[in-house]
Amino acid sequence: MRVRFFHPWNVTYLQAISIQIRLRHELIERPLGSVERIAAVDASFVEGRAYAVAAAFSYSSMELLDQSMAKCDLDFPYIPGLLTFREGSALLMALDGLAEEVDVILFDGQGQAHPRFMGEAAHLGILLDKPSIGCAKSWLWGEYEEPGWEKGSSSPLIAGCRQVGAAVRTRSGVKPIFVSPGHLCDNASAKEVALGCCRGFRIPEPLRFVHAQSKRYALEDR
DNA sequence: GCGACAG
DNA sequence: ATCTTGTCGC
Ligand SMILES: [Mg+2]
Questions:
Q1: What are the helix (H) ranges across chain A?
Q2: Distance of alpha carbon A63 from alpha carbon A32, whole angstroms
Q3: Distance, Å, A117 CA → C7 C1'
Q4: Which domains does chain A possess?
Q5: What secondary structure, in 3-state letters, does A1-61 show?
Q6: Which nucleotide has the shortest C1'-to-CA distance from A44?
Q7: Are strands A154-159 and A49-58 parallel, antiparallel or unpaired?
Q8: Measured between alpha carbons, how far is A131 from A1 in angstroms, rounded to an integer?
Q9: Cα separations (Å) of A89 from A15, A42, A192, A205?
């Protein structure tokens, strides 16, 4: 898939925040259409470099359809709220190598559950002009109640008097994940798709795969 | 000033 | 996220 919109990546802390605020006006929230193919992307880090892997799957069977890797030097530090400026360009490079077209992309981080409603999934979804969903392993933004113990139960993440995502129990009795819609998606679709690609583990299968792959890629290049 | 803080 | 192997428990 191709990147449709661009902005500089070698920016200062204040410029990064300014870009997030500007992109906020481009965010479109709406239900997802039918999902036949889905992609996920993640990165691992070693010796100041990011190793990103993107992969495409059949949504119904979770069969692997395509895979792509990218390596690049890191220049921006990790700052909560600005994760996209650390690993975003590496993730886009990996996604750019995917030949298979997909209906939605999963990211290892927040979507709209972010102080400026512009988490990694929302931000990169806009640049790619593709539907996107954020599936974070821990909390960043929004008030919520502990969801029920059973797999499938969830409770809304509320910020600024509106729902920006949900804490979703993807395995009974296990810590929930934080699912929030990115671009061209809504809360109901995000939760449905995130749960729809779990196969017995807390983390949705496409993200589990790219996480493991990026780690292997980084370790064997060390 | 203090606390919180995706990966 | 990373530094790091085996080990305890469901
Ligand atoms: Mg990650």
A1: 13-23, 84-96, 120-128, 187-196, 205-221
A2: 21
A3: 42
A4: 13-220 (3.30.2170.10)
A5: CCCCCCCCCCCCHHHHHHHHHHHHHHCCCCCCCCCCEEEEEEEEEECCEEEEEEEEEECCC
A6: C1
A7: unpaired
A8: 12
A9: 16, 11, 28, 23
Nucleotides of C under 7 A from a protein CB: 1-3
Find the angle CA(A106)-CA(A190)-CA(A126) to the nearest 5 degrees. 55
ipTM above 0.90, yes or no: yes
Ligand 1 centroid to Cα of residue A94, in Å, is 14
Tens-binned pLDDT, residue by residue, of chain A (222 aa) = 999 999 999 999 999 999 999 999 999 999 999 999 999 999 999 999 999 999 999 999 999 999 999 999 999 999 999 999 999 999 999 999 999 999 999 999 999 999 999 999 999 999 999 999 999 999 999 999 999 999 999 999 999 999 999 999 999 999 999 999 999 999 999 999 999 999 999 999 999 999 999 999 999 999
Backbone phi, psi, residue A134, to 5°: -100, 130
